[in-house]
Design goal:
5 strands, alpha/beta, about 230 residues, Bact_response_regulator, 8 helices, single chain
Length: about 230
């Protein structure tokens, strides 16, 4: 069963939170409400989120200050933030949003289809990263356990490597399809950069797996001698 991604919605007005939930419900992910910056930071202490939709104009701790706290924390600094604002103070105000670490800055009223599409991209990237971490953890545990599976069955190294390679290939295929989709849709630069980062991590994992293949060490040795 695939675990759903969590999306954090931060706005001090209940009607705005309700509207966001209505727009994003079609994504079939877990939507978490926060009515203030302080409440958002508290939620981020315990849960992992695919993306944060953050209102700029809030009493007390506003969106800019909240984003600054999020980016200072090692646990949360890489979570994409989409700023939402009901006012437009011009380029300087927008620049301040990007300077605070936002991947996008959207003025209200916004197109529900556009917002849903932007959020779905980051949700998909988050899910791919989760799959990558799971495959890496599985590889590490099985290698440390001498090739034992979750039920205690011991597999031959070649069989184990073949299974892990197949699982990694499935993630690679999905990541490649997502990258092509982003290129075709001329997606946001932040989304494209995140996808590229994911592909680099996949490449590193593939190289590590290939290095474990029988004969890989001797082949590299021969290559270095030539």
């Amino acid at each position: 069963m695939v675990q759903k991604a969590k999306i954090l919605l931060v706005d001090d007005r209940p009607e705005n939170l309700l509207a966001l939930e209505a727009i994003l419900s079609a994504l079939d992910q877990t939507l978490v409400r926060a009515s203030s910056g302080e409440e958002a930071l508290k939620a981020l202490l315990t849960d992992d989120f695919a993306v944060i939709l953050l209102d700029v104009q809030m009493p007390g701790m506003d969106g800019f200050e909240t984003a600054a706290h999020i980016k200072r924390r090692e646990r949360t600094r890489d979570i994409p933030i989409i700023f939402l604002t009901a006012i437009n103070h011009g380029p300087h105000h927008t620049f301040r949003g990007y300077a605070a670490g936002a991947v996008d800055y959207i003025s209200k009223p916004f197109d529900p289809w556009v917002l849903r599409a932007k959020v779905s991209v980051f949700v998909e990237l988050y899910m791919k990263n989760c799959q990558l971490r799971e495959q890496a953890a599985l590889l590490r545990l099985q290698l440390e356990g001498g090739g034992k599976t979750a039920v205690g069955e011991t597999k031959e190294p070649a069989s184990l490597l073949a299974e892990l390679s197949a699982r990694l290939a499935a993630v690679e295929e999905q990541a490649e399809a997502l990258s092509k989709q982003l290129d075709d849709e001329s997606a946001d630069a932040a989304a494209v950069a995140t996808a590229a980062h994911l592909e680099r991590k996949l490449t590193g994992l593939r190289r590590a797996l290939d290095a474990l293949e029988p004969g890989a060490g001797s082949a590299s040795s021969v290559s270095s001698q030539n």
